[in-house]
Amino acid sequence: MEPVPMLLAMTYRAMGDQFHDRLAQIGLEPLRPAHGYVFRFLKARRATTVDIGQHLGVTKQAAAKIVNELDEWGYVIREPHPTDKRAQYVTLTTKGRDYLKFADNLWSDLESEMAEAIGPDSLATIKTGLTAYLQHVHGDDQPGLRPVW
Amino acid sequence: MEPVPMLLAMTYRAMGDQFHDRLAQIGLEPLRPAHGYVFRFLKARRATTVDIGQHLGVTKQAAAKIVNELDEWGYVIREPHPTDKRAQYVTLTTKGRDYLKFADNLWSDLESEMAEAIGPDSLATIKTGLTAYLQHVHGDDQPGLRPVW
DNA sequence: TAGGGTTAGACAACTTGGTTGACTACTTTG
DNA sequence: CAAAGTAGTCAACCAAGTTGTCTAACCCTA
């Protein structure tokens, strides 16, 4: 059998392919993966462009480009930082939150289909196993979902 | 708990980070991910540049660049195709096979450490579960490990 | 078996998503 | 209060991909 890392990659790729197929079918504006990672990051915390760059693992200039796009397209807005006059908080608009919610539903559908295919017990074991591993690696401050290049 | 696809991505990313850290420590020439995918593809089958492009999901021109690099660096050679005078088979050299073997050992180490962290039974269930899902999705012709970006 | 459509690979021009570097305005620290 | 550090922007560059074009070889069919 294939080693675990390959199985993880193959499975994620298989689910990701279906995810994008369905997004395309629905006709929802197809954002690039980086945008999704930003949405997910902003959902949890307030963040500046620099924070976003750090999370994505790119320079602040690259992050700024992405934030500019998302702003132009209406998915995020920039708000003045309450205490630091240099900085701006980037936050999701309603449109941004809606897109994220829609994507989450799609992922959730795929998870359900996996449960049907391999059985809910199997799925549950996988989830707790992976979660335990992440706990083992990162301890108590999980970095969250970062790009898998 | 996070949905499965995110768990898959986070776990793969966590393992990948460790993989690259260790590669760098050893001081082995750091190839890019695409090269790894090519090695793994060539291990199983004889392939032309076009085949490689298809597998990676890029144009044949992009694939040709990668193959050129790998050739210059001594990881692959091009051999005349036995029946088609236009085409060339790309095959791994000893250096290429050695690199792949080394990488496989590293991945295997990471799998062992996962087994320690979450228990071998848990790991086994994960592997059979993911394998079953891939069987469910792709049926009998598995596309193998393709890039996840 | 000739001829038309297709395919492998090479070459060139261009696009894109990132990089490094420099600068201003503001903040933090000694 | 001065010096060092940081958020964000502008500009130049780079790398990895793209499209488009071409030649030589292949393959089908009438």
Automatic annotation (TrEMBL), chains A, B:
Pfam families: MarR_2 (PF12802). GO terms for molecular function: DNA-binding transcription factor activity. GO terms for biological process: response to stress. Signal peptide: none annotated. Residues 1-135 form the HTH marR-type domain. This is MarR family transcriptional regulator.
